[in-house]
Amino acid sequence: MFFQNYKIRNKHLINMFTFIILLLSPQVVLGAGDSISYPENNWSFSGITGTFDRASQQRGLQVYKEVCSGCHGLRLVAYRNLKALGYNDDEVKAFAAENSVSDIDDEGETIERAARPSDKFVSPYPNKQAARAANGGAYPPDLSLIVKARANGADYLHALLTGYVDAPVEKKVPDGMYFNKYYAGNLIGMPQPLYEDGVTFADGTTATQAQMAKDVTTFLAWASEPELEERKRIGISVILFLLLLTILSYFAMRQIWAPIKNK
Ligand code: HEC
Q: What pTM value is reported for the model?
């Protein structure tokens, strides 16, 4: 009886094992092809106590606004969220008011009005088709979640933005495509966006390509995960609390068992 059961269970186990291997095998094969590795950066927001570098975030916002926002939207971020970067209400209001959004007035007419802090970042194109039409068929994705949407997102983005190099002679680069050593397949529909001194930073930092890439990545990492600092803070307090609780329970346990042990 016992052996019979045992056999059946074994068969189940083998079936399950085969199923899991089959499930994993395409990933193993795909994984083998993905061999581009990116230089690692020292991000202020990595590690368990990491926080965003405010000055870098503000410079990153400037790079996004002056360079990327021509083609890429940021539709999940509202202007008022920028207060987290250290701006005050008036600054946020002024920043929002530089954009215009369409709205419906009290008479039901469509109007254009200045954006308010509660509005989301205005996208450069009305829809995907218009975005494709303006970019030779390639779609510039919304950048709100891009750092989360790519494996090793921050390092990848930094590498991509600094990865435009001359194509090797044997590589054919069609019109409207550009060679980037870190993009899968090397041909990307985005022209090189960052050049030395492409922006003049408000805080006087020298705008090298690497600096702008670092700052815009920090800004977009925040956009992807604005609650990161809060999450880490809570995480640390929870661990400290649990540690304290463990110590207290240990002493409570000793106290409770003392009369029994001493008998
Ligand atoms: C002239 C328009 C233009 C500008 C300016 C521009 N991009 Fe792009 N970007 C594109 C297009 C088009 C694509 C899609 C490329 C493709 O699919 O081949 C793209 C793709 C991307 C991607 C996705 C890459 C991937 O892994 O799929 C990222 C990330 C990106 N851009 C970031 C930026 C950042 C950051 C800036 C500002 C520093 C910027 N872009 C400026 C047009 C632009």
A: 0.85
List the structure tokens of 184: 């899968």
Q: Which residues lie below 8 Å from residue 61, measured CB to CB, with a gap of 6+?
A: 82, 85, 219
Determine if ligand 1 sits within 6 Å of the CB of residue 216: yes
Measured from the Cα of 64, ligand 1's closest atom is 37
The reply to whether ligand 1 has any atom less than 6 angstroms from the CB of 213 is no
List CB contacts of 197: < 8 A, sequence separation 6 or more: 207
Low-confidence ranges of the chain (pLDDT < 50): 1, 29-32
Domain ranges within the chain, ordered by starting residue: 2-74+142-261
What does the DSSP 8-state code read for residue 106?
T
DSSP-assigned letter for residue 208? -
Which residue has tokens 């990848």? 156
Task: Please state the length of the chain.
Answer: 263
The C-alpha atoms of residue 40 and residue 222 are separated, in whole angstroms, by 18
Based on its alpha-carbon atoms, the radius of gyration of the chain, rounded to whole angstroms, reads 27
Residue found under tokens 């360079």: 67
Q: What was the pLDDT predicted at 15?
A: 73
Query: From CA 223, how far away is CA 211, in angstroms rounded?
Result: 18
CATH T-level fold of 2-74+142-261? Cytochrome Bc1 Complex; Chain D, domain 2 (1.10.760)
How remote is the CA of residue 63 from the centroid of ligand 1, in Å? 13
**Residue 62 is inside which H or E element, if any?**
helix 54-66
Q: Tell me the CA distances in angstroms from 144 to 7, 38, 42, 61, 140, one per residue in order.
A: 53, 22, 22, 12, 12
pLDDT the model gives residue 54? 97
